[in-house]
Write a structure and sequence with these properties.
Layout (H helix, E strand, L loop, with lengths): L9 E2 L2 E3 L1 E4 L2 E8 L17 H25 L5 H14 L2 H14 L3 H17 L4 H4 L2 H16 L13 E5 L4 H6 L7 E4 L7 H9 L3 E3 L4 H4 L5 E5 L4 E4 L3 H23 L5 E2 L5 E8 L5 H6 L4 E6 L13 H15 L4 E4 L26 H7 L1 H14 L5 E5 L5 H20 L10 E5 L2 H5 L1 H4 L5 E4 L1 H9 L17 H17 L2 E4 L10 H7 L3 E4 L4 H9 L3 H11 L5 H16 L17
Parallel strand pairs: 4-5, 5-6, 6-7, 11-12, 11-18, 12-13, 13-14, 14-15, 15-16, 16-17, 17-18
Antiparallel strand pairs: 1-2, 2-9, 3-7, 4-8, 8-9, 10-11
Helix pairs in contact: 1-2, 1-3, 1-6, 3-4, 4-6, 12-14, 14-15, 20-22
């Protein structure tokens, strides 16, 4: 989107941000006022502590009732909205939040509002330290829960969108799940926010509602006023403020063309992804909750390529037992039919807290006890999940995938535990599939460098590009000062990817990709050239990726890959890929999809 991390600023009448939901919206700005409230801070006497706790508990009850009321009004809102609202209900009763505030009131003798603000700040900090972008963005959910409780404590009104006109574009610092749920009942055109990322709840809701959206603009609420004419370019991550007549007409043409193209893509979403010269790729979907399985399949996915199981463990008082997990996994496997599902084992640990585990804070949780490291340290917890997965394998094609593998010893330890669980289940008379493929995520440089060795020990590879890029280039995508360095077409990454795929091919195992790179049409030709067997992505990306694959030749993609592997500079590679792919597609895909500027992360 820009070539500097500091470029999220106005440029004339254009604001740059992160395009999280493609398409174009043209309308008048409606500013949603969610200014921070001034929180009263004062000490209370010992005789007033019980009353402060009672005030806090009343605010919890009121907040919970409000969320329930929103859910009741949105019976037909779709599953995605209920998932997030359900998570907010659970957060309201989370003991880290509730007990933390009670203890602060009692021990520090402070008022409920002050205690709540301090505790929310502490909890939010935990999310700030999470490496996984998807879970790091959940810090916004913590803020919204805290804001709701605080407003109820102070008797302040809750902003909502019930009076917004249908020709409006919402402009806000951020949007809560309750705000975005109301968008279902108010035909707004799109929205833009100061904050947020590609995996923030606002982005998820935007894609779910299929509304053009740009987030992370930094300060759009400061430069846009109510009634300003706006153009949201969700494909390029741009907001045009009071555009000229020429710009307005140009974007109206783009808008009509985009709508027609989406309709055409939807008509062919169930056709296979096969190149013009016969190279077939499997297109799969990424899900976080088992209820999302139907959605990705309806979007044209042939299977589930990544089921992140962490949400089974989050925002709850107890760990999920074997039977509960088994029912979730079985549901997904049965829905997926012959192609089946790839289910990733638990990727939690010291950086992603689970209330029942009482895990201690780590100095550097990003590189600490997480994912497979945590699972091997806590084999009792890990075995519960493995047993549930093996039981579910009796009902369909289930593949087990292990994250954050760094070396051979971890792979062998997992295989030994799987064998123990299989023997236990057999002794209990429980059915298990005769063969349950076991694979690993290749997302650490150490695993990538020894991919030829690891390939001989597992049944498949799944390349997790989000972490592989971050760890290889030593950058934090959440750090605005270095995000301009996040370049998936960096020559080091391309050579690493080629070695991983070649190692899998030499060992006779399948190799897929399930990071954001897989769902971005800009990179599709390179991924076809690499020889990947499967691409797994969010539901909204599937029809376009399939169309791109059906429009190109695998031989041309291999030639393109060979060309860029001789280059040593990421910007040079990006320009070359953009030029070559636009030529190969002969104008079938809009130019902005292949503009290199839009593929430098902000």
């Amino acid at each position: 989107m820009s070539n500097q991390g500091s470029d999220v600023k106005t440029s004339g009448s254009v604001l740059k941000g992160i395009g999280v939901s493609p398409g174009y919206a043209i309308g008048r700005a409606h500013l949603l006022d969610r200014r921070r409230m001034k929180v009263p801070k004062y000490h209370v006497g010992p005789t007033e502590i019980a009353n402060e706790i009672k005030r806090f508990e009343d605010a919890l009850d009121e907040s919970e009732a409000q969320i329930k009321e929103i859910k009741d009004k949105l019976q037909n809102a779709g599953e995605e909205h209920f998932f997030i609202l359900d998570a907010h209900q659970l957060m309201i009763r989370d003991e880290m939040l509730v007990d933390g505030v009670r203890n602060m009131i009692t021990e520090q003798e402070i008022n409920a509002e002050w205690a709540l603000k301090k505790n929310i700040k502490s909890i939010r900090q935990l999310f700030e330290n999470i490496d996984d972008e998807y879970f790091r963005e959940r810090r916004a959910d913590v803020d919204f829960v805290g804001d709701r409780i605080l407003r109820n404590l102070m008797g302040s009104a809750h902003p909502n969108l019930s009076q917004v006109h249908g020709d409006s574009i919402i402009v806000a610092h951020d949007l809560s799940p309750a705000d975005t749920a109301f968008l279902l009942r108010t035909p707004v055109l799109g929205f833009a926010t100061d904050v947020g990322g590609k995996t923030s709840h606002t982005a998820i809701m935007a894609r779910s509602l299929e509304l053009p959206a740009v987030v992370g603009t930094d300060h759009i609420t400061e430069v846009v006023g109510d009634g300003d004419m706006l153009i949201i370019d969700g494909s390029a991550g741009r907001v045009l403020i009071n555009p000229s007549e020429d710009e307005l007409r140009r974007y109206q043409r783009l808008q009509m063309a985009y709508s027609a193209r989406r309709a055409q893509l939807a008509m062919r979403k169930d056709e296979p992804a096969c190149t013009l010269d016969g190279r077939r790729l499997r297109i799969a979907g990424n899900i976080e909750l088992h209820e999302e399985c139907g959605m990705v399949l309806d979007s044209g996915a042939e299977s589930v390529g990544l089921y992140r199981t962490e949400y089974l463990y989050m925002n709850r008082e107890t760990l999920p037992d074997e039977d509960e997990q088994y029912e979730h996994y079985r549901h997904v496997v049965e829905l997926c039919g012959a192609e089946g599902a790839t289910i990733r084992t638990l990727d939690l640990g010291g950086d992603k807290f689970i209330t029942p585990l009482k895990l201690g804070r780590e100095l550097n949780p990003v590189m600490g006890l997480r994912a497979i490291r945590f699972c091997l340290r806590e084999p009792g917890i890990f075995k519960v999940q493995l047993r549930a997965l093996l039981r579910a394998s009796a009902y369909g094609n289930l593949r087990i995938m292990v994250p954050l593998i760094s070396g051979l010893s971890e792979v062998r330890a997992v295989k030994a535990l799987v064998a123990v669980c299989r023997e236990e289940l057999a002794a209990e008379g429980r059915a298990v599939a005769e063969r349950v493929p076991l694979g690993i995520m290749v997302e650490l440089p150490s695993a990538a460098v020894i991919a030829d060795i690891l390939a001989r020990e597992v049944d498949f590879f799944a390349i997790g590009t989000n972490d592989l890029i971050q760890y290889t280039l030593a950058i934090d995508r959440a750090n605005e000062h270095v995000t301009y360095l996040y370049r998936p077409l960096h020559p080091a990454l391309l050579r690493m990817l080629k070695f991983i795929v070649d190692s899998a091919r030499d060992a006779g195992i399948r190799v897929s990709m399930c990071g954001e790179m897989a769902g971005d049409a800009f990179y599709t030709a390179i991924l076809v050239g690499l020889g990947l067997d499967e691409l797994s992505m969010n539901a909204v990306s599937i029809p376009l990726i399939k169309h791109v694959i059906r429009s190109i030749r695998a031989d041309d993609c291999r030639t393109l890959l060979a060309e860029v592997l001789t280059m040593g500079d990421a910007p040079e590679i990006e320009r070359h890929v953009a030029d070559r792919v636009k030529h190969l597609l002969q104008g079938q895909i809009p130019i902005e999809v292949f503009d290199p500027e839009h593929h430098v992360q902000t």
